[in-house]
Amino acid sequence: MTHEYASLQFTKIAFKPLHTNLFNIVLLSIFLSIGSSNLYSQDIKKKQTPLPSKKQEVKSPNTKNSIEESVTDVKKDTVRLDTVKVKKGVLDGKVRYKAENYVKIDQKKKLITLYDKSELYYQDVELKSGIIVMDYDKNEVYAGRIKDSTGNYTQFPNFKQGNNVIEPDSIRFNFKTKKALIWNSRTNQGEFNVKAAITKKENDSVYFLKGARFTTAKDIDNPEYYFQTNKIKFTPGKKIVTGFTNMVIADVPTPLFLPFAYFPLSKETSTSGIILPSYNNSNTKGFSLQNGGYYFALSDYYNLALTGDYYTNGSYGLAAQSSYANRYHFQGNINIRFENNIVSERGYPDYSKTKIYNIQWSHSQDSKANPNSTFSASVNLGSSEYFKKTINQINVGSSLNNTLSSSISYSTVFHSIPESRISLTATHSQNTQTKEINMTLPTLQFSIDRMYPFASNDGAKKGIIKNINLQYNLNGKNSFKTTDSLFFKPEMFRNADIGFQHSIPLSTNFKVFKYFSVSSSLNYQEVWYFKTINKRYDDLLNTVVTTDVKGFDAFRTYSSSTSLGTTIYGTFNFGNDKKIQSIRHVMRPSISHSYTPSFEKYYDTYATDASGTMQKDYTRFEGGIYGSPGMNSSNFLGINLSNTFEAKVKDRDSTKTEPKKIMLLNNLNLSTSYNFDAKELAWSPVRVSGGTQFFDNKLSANFGATLDPYAIDNNGKRINIYNIDNGGSLFRMTSANLTMNYSINNKGEKKEKNSQNLRNGGRGDDLFGSDIDVGNVRKSQFDDENGEDKISEFFRAKLPWDMTFAYSLTYGNNNREKKIIGNSIMISANADLTPKWKAGISTGYDFVQKGVTFTQLRFERDLMSWRMDFNWTPFGDNASWNFFIGIKSGILSDIKWEKRNLTNK
Q1: Radius of gyration in angstroms for the set of CA atoms belonging to the chain, rounded to a whole number
Q2: Which of 60, 451, 620, 837 could form a disulfide with 109 if both were Cys (CB 3.0 to 4.6 A apart)?
Q3: 3-state secondary structure string, 529-597?
Q4: H-helix or E-strand spanning residue 239
Q5: What's the mean pLDDT when you consider all of the chain?
Q6: For 302, which DSSP code?
Q7: H or E segment at 397?
Q8: Is 203:184 a contact under the CB 8 Å cutoff?
Q9: Contact 355, 340 (CB under 8 A)
């Protein structure tokens, strides 16, 4: 399977003149793109006698007639399909032909004339035209167009030999020498459409063109741009070599030209070549060349692109990107980037120098590759300030994200009895604000599937005894806590935390009183550590000193839990003639009890003052990766109630007899707990949460609130007095939140997510703007991945658009502040203003801070073979603008002009 590197395009270059006018779009594009690393040109050699220039006159041959069937008069036959058998030495095979109007065979002149929708087949040659004249003595054929009743030319020749197709005004072809003269030919070669006044076909692999034009525009007769040249030599599927070449835009010749040029036409999906850099300037780094390098098409399964940036103030960047794939096995990509960023000039107050890097790796295994083992990777790690300081990528969604995370895992299944499985996982979590990194290298997980020791031989598991089951789980970690500056340095590995956790859960479930489900479990847990702590008071330092104790140590705990639940259904009928016919209410109440005894035997005391009279309890397992045993027992009774509400309403479509079901509330949950062993504040706050959807599930709303039954004192501390006994209400609302998300469009399909933004750690939508990949600016910022406009005609009814809306409200009242601590709205919208114009906006407003949130304006113009794009972030820390215009085609992707200004970078 071939897997192309999608984000980089290149063109082989040999002649690269300096650009003289930065702001001249077309001039800059031409001088950056057209040329060759292996330049040569060739004139049409006149070693052989050319074919006669007269198009339809063929002299009578002197050889004997070899046609078995002859027609002396004009005959009309709309279905005629004849076969001509020829003697050896004249033609090498059978000639099949037919025509709708007539077929005329002249034995004396050795001519076959086909008229009106004529077709001729010989070996690998297929010829269709208005008129075809074949001289089977000279092995030559002429094909041309004909006039219709209005005097217009129709039925242009279509000449096909192998995979090459040519559509000229007329053609002369020799079956023996394979040579041809073609007038006003039109052909497609790779991404190029080529038209030439005269084409000479030397053989199957070499063509010479005179008075030619070539372009990537779809309409070769009326292209929006093309390259005009008098001499071309091209080898189909391999290369085009031109002489003096001039660029023409809208049929107006430009002063842009090259003395010669070379274009590869490889049939391979990817070939190695130079990646031309793009020009840019920065307010703080100076002028630059970005993303220049070399692309290596190493094989059909993997590739490599090495690129770099250079800035005039000394900053530079290096990047390596690779994609790989093996059908039915795996696929993935790797992206590694390093930057040495210098801001301003040495000696200025804003001067700074930082080194940043980012590593991204994504790997997925096909489900058919190995049913027993899987391997996957999703890596995004690097400098905490990478997405904020890199100038190579305008990635607002990622720069506003505070967390980077990674995971690499391998798992396999052992088909034993009982079945078991093992997995190894390496994880990484990084806070870009605090620059703290938590990493496990690795995490080991081993488990044995559930076993039913008392189940019958037929597998039936009914009743409290037969449902008794147990498992075994092992979890081991090698954990590190470090900072951004010490990542993967020796200091990081010195304080590794290693531990193992064994657990054996024993559980069962059964029914009581027919409608109540009971589940009960006992859990045994054993934790191994290889490092514990010791605390003591140091008289010299007058402080408590904590020291690490190396060596194996362990603690063991156990707990129990039981839950009882049922489901209650209620239906309220209002009548079939009502708009709302019925409402269905489903309640799922449950109570649970959990008990964990005290493990104070694992606790010691230490002095907290010099006299030693003040003592405090601690456990040597404190701070372990699997926690520590509890000193106090817990005896909790949990209460939970979940609700759903559904309605049946009369359908607006009168032809439908069945009512329509709609969801009123997806869930409405209430939960709290009571600790029997607590001496005070035994009740935990009541948590209320719920959610629903509107407008055909396009608008989702979720809400929640925390209700505390206890009062607080003047310092805001909870006291063991109920709020209602303190002169308040039954519950005191300490917090509440509401979130709403709305995403709609009129395109009849779900809007695609921004997968690259997700890999960077940002959002999948464009509420924080659409990313700009400066390594592939030809890509559309809107939904179309190929930068092509799918709309081909003017709008008649609907204006294509999509919109994403998000609202968040947070209320805080922990200390009677009764304050809205968060209240913001964000909106992103994209629309096709015309079939060729697209516009988008991302913005929002913070009602608490009273300011506009991140705002981005996007505009894109489809110029048929070209694409123009403008992206503007008018204010804020990420203020910037980006302009691009260039050819869409990958083979001419370096014909472009782009300009960026990153205000704060």
Answers
A1: 39
A2: 60
A3: EEEEEEEEEECCCCEEEEEEEEEEEEEEEEEEEEEEECCEEEEEECCCCCCEEEEEEEEEEEEEEEEEC
A4: strand 239-242
A5: 81
A6: B
A7: helix 396-399
A8: no
A9: yes
What does the pLDDT read at residue 66?
31
Q: Is 243 exposed, middle or buried (0-12, 13-18, 19+ CB in 10 A)?
A: middle
Extract the tokens encoding 797: 């009814």
Please give the span between the terminal C-alpha atoms of the chain, in angstroms, as a whole number. 41
In terms of Cα–Cα distance, which of 331, 363, 404, 275 is closest to 774?
275
* Cβ(670)–Cβ(688) below 8 Å: yes
Residue position matching structure tokens 């001509």 = 84
Q: Are 262 and 285 in contact (CB under 8 A)?
A: no
Give the 3-state secondary structure of 889-901: CHHHCCCEEEEEE
In degrees and rounded to multiples of 5, residue 56 shows phi and psi of: -115, 5
Task: Give residue-wise pLDDT tens across range 220-266.
Answer: 888 888 889 888 887 877 788 888 888 888 888 888 888 888 877 76
> How many CA atoms are closer than 13 Å to the CA of 341, on its beta-carbon side?
21
H/E/C letters for each residue in 428-449? EEEECCCCEEEEEEEEEEEEEE
Extract the tokens encoding 170: 């007329």
Residues in the chain: 905
SS3 631: coil
Task: Cite the DSSP H helix spans in 11-128.
Answer: 25-33
What pTM was estimated for this model as a whole? 0.67
Per the domain annotation, does 450 fall within a domain? no
Residue 299 identity: S
The single-letter code of the amino acid at 716 is: G
Residue 795 has pLDDT above 60, yes or no: no
Q: How far apart are CA 614 and CA 479, in angstroms?
A: 34
Beta strands in 276-402 (DSSP E): 278-282, 286-296, 304-311, 316-326, 330-343, 352-365, 373-382, 393-394
The answer to whether 693 touches 740, Cβ cutoff 8 Å, is no
pLDDT confidence tier of residue 724, bands split at 50, 70 and 90: very high
Residue 8 reports pLDDT greater than 60 = no
**658 in the Ramachandran plot: left (φ > 0), alpha (ψ -120 to 50) or beta?**
beta
Q: What is the pLDDT of residues 92-111, one digit of tens each?
A: 667 888 898 888 888 888 88
On whether residue 297 sits in a domain, the answer given is: yes
Write b or e for each residue in 177-210: b if 16 or more Cβ atoms lie within 10 A of its Cβ, otherwise e: eebbbbbbbbbebbebbbbbebbbbbeeeebbbe
Tell me how many degrees the CA angle 310-313-315 measures, rounded to the nearest 5.
45
Cα angle for residues 178, 181, 186 (degrees, 5° grid):
105
Q: Is the pLDDT of residue 35 over 50?
A: no
Which tokens belong to 737? Answer: 């939140």
Q: Is residue 301 part of a domain?
A: yes
Q: Mean pLDDT, to the nearest integer, of 664-682?
A: 92
Distance CA 771, CA 333 (A): 19
Burial (CB < 10 A; 0-12, 13-18, 19+), residue 170, is buried
Residue with tokens 């041309």: 144
Provide the residue type at 270 as one letter. S
Amino acid 18: pLDDT? 35
Q: Mean pLDDT across the stretch 76-100?
A: 60
Residue span of the structural domain in which 379 resides: 279-401
SS3 401: coil
Q: Is residue 71 part of a domain?
A: no
Residues 6+ apart with CB under 8 A from 806: 739, 740, 741, 742, 767, 825, 826, 827
Give the chain's domain count.
Answer: 1
The label of the residue with tokens 């780094």 reads: 285
The DSSP secondary structure of 638-655, one letter per residue, reads EEEEEEEEEEEE--S-TT
